[in-house]
Design a protein that fits this description.
single chain, 444 residues, mainly alpha, Growth Hormone, Chain: A, two-stranded antiparallel ribbon, globular, disordered C terminus
Length: 444
């Protein structure tokens, strides 16, 4: 499962760790808010609906940030825009520490979301264009483990800070630590090179021929764009229900202490770490579409049992690991899959739009949980919203094409090179046989 990493070149490994670290630090800054929700509800008298609205605002802004950053990355380069997005989300996480009201935090967290969405979009494209096709699923999928690491760091910091400081000060200190990711930019500036496939395409494209911001909606890509948005809507809608509300569920419904909440979340995060590697292996071995369908179905069942049935605390602990594995398992597949659906000249903008538009629409779900939570039990609201989202994943995966083995340098013009069915499972260089097929929004 990990042999692919030893075969990467030094530039590939450096790019991998830059994207892994960026995604992990992005997760750390973003998840600090979820961990601070119970404290802010108590200190500011926020309702659950307002708390959900704050989370939704970040995700909507992330969709806008992903699209903007993707467009800029297609024009000015992946590495340069990656640095800017990291600086952006770090700065506004820090500013959130100085807010004193719901509306002030709404502004700073919304602006933080611009960088959050942008970093994911640009980083996913950079690593997808750098890694060879035969192991792209495993390499890009494993980046999702960076989210688990960042989430774990946030939980650890939250547990330590809230255990030693008064709540009124602790949440501010937690947000202030969000400035740390800026240090990664210095390393990226020195060691990370531009993706070769992008550099080659850019050199061959005149400024006047570069696509406009609406190119992803032009034929024949329009249908693929809309289906990809439906896929990510389902993935992130369900995942953000659990990510946003799980800490509050453990504390407010199961009545766990701050220390115990940290322990339960740690188990969930360990599952998320494992899920990233599981998805990558399955996607390269069995195909992208089949992997999405299987994991989403399992996820709907696990969420239903976790939130809608009377289970004991030990079972809750074990299921937390399963949920983490499956949450990461669906999200981990999006980076490589979206990159394989679109040509190089618009790949970053398409990835930014499809990945983050799904976040924006999916962001409705945490707010819906907060609103439903006023009428039904919080667990029931979480379960219903998450399960409905994962059914959309299955639907979208059935409508989209299989892309395992695609050479990104040839997803261009009137045809593209795709691995033939008999060789798509090849994992070693030179084992994939190529054939040429027409490009369309519904290549299968």
């Amino acid at each position: 499962m990990f042999k692919w990493y030893t075969e990467l070149t030094k530039p590939e490994k450096r790019t991998y760790w830059a994207c892994f670290s960026g995604w992990g630090l992005d997760a750390m800054d973003t998840q600090m808010y979820a961990l601070a929700i119970p404290t802010l509800i108590a200190l500011w008298g926020m309702t659950r609906g307002e708390a959900g609205l704050l989370g939704t605002t970040v995700l909507i802004m992330a969709s806008l940030g992903g699209w903007i950053a993707g467009i800029l990355a297609d024009r000015y380069g992946r590495v340069r825009i990656l640095q800017i997005t990291i600086l952006w989300f770090s700065a506004f996480t820090l500013l959130s520490a100085f807010t004193d009201s719901f509306w002030q935090l709404m502004v700073t967290r919304g602006l933080q979301g611009l960088g959050f969405g942008g970093e994911w979009a640009v980083g996913a494209v950079l690593i997808s264009e750098t890694i060879r096709p035969q192991v792209r699923g495993r390499a890009v999928g494993s980046l999702q483990a960076g989210w688990a690491v960042g989430y774990g760091v946030a939980v650890l910091l939250s547990t330590l800070i809230f255990s030693t400081l008064e709540p009124a000060l602790a949440w501010r200190v937690l947000f202030a630590i969000g400035l740390l990711p800026t240090l990664l930019v210095l390393w990226i500036r020195r060691y990370i090179e531009e993706a070769p496939v992008f550099a080659q395409t850019r050199a061959q494209t005149a400024d006047a021929d570069r696509p406009g911001i609406w190119a992803v909606f032009e034929r024949p890509l329009r249908a693929t764009t809309l289906k990809a948005i439906l896929l990510t809507f389902g993935i992130y809608g369900g995942n953000y229900v659990m990510i946003t509300w799980l800490p509050a569920y453990l504390k407010l419904v199961l009545h766990l202490s701050i220390t115990n909440v940290g322990g339960y979340l740690a188990i969930n995060i360990l599952g998320s770490f494992a899920g990233a590697f599981l998805n990558g292996w399955m996607a390269d071995r069995f195909g992208r579409r089949r992997t999405f369908i299987v994991i989403a179905c399992l996820q709907a069942v696990a969420v239903a049992v976790y939130t809608l049935t009377p289970i004991t605390l030990p079972v809750t602990l074990v299921l937390g690991f399963v949920l983490g594995t499956l949450q990461s398992g669906t999200a981990a597949g999006t980076g490589a899959y979206l990159a394989e659906l679109f040509p190089t000249r618009i790949r970053a903008s398409a990835q930014g739009l499809c990945g983050n538009a799904g976040r924006a629409v999916g962001a409705i779900m945490p707010t819906l949980v907060g609103l439903l939570g006023a009428r039904v039990e919080l667990g029931a609201a979480m379960g219903l919203c998450a399960c409905a989202s994962y059914l959309l994943v299955v639907t979208a995966a059935m409508l989209l094409p299989e892309t395992r083995g695609r050479d990104l340098s040839h997803v261009e013009g009137g045809s593209e090179v795709v691995a033939s069915p008999g060789s798509a499972e090849a994992s070693e260089p030179g084992e994939t046989t190529m054939r040429r097929v027409p490009v369309s929004g519904d290549v299968r």
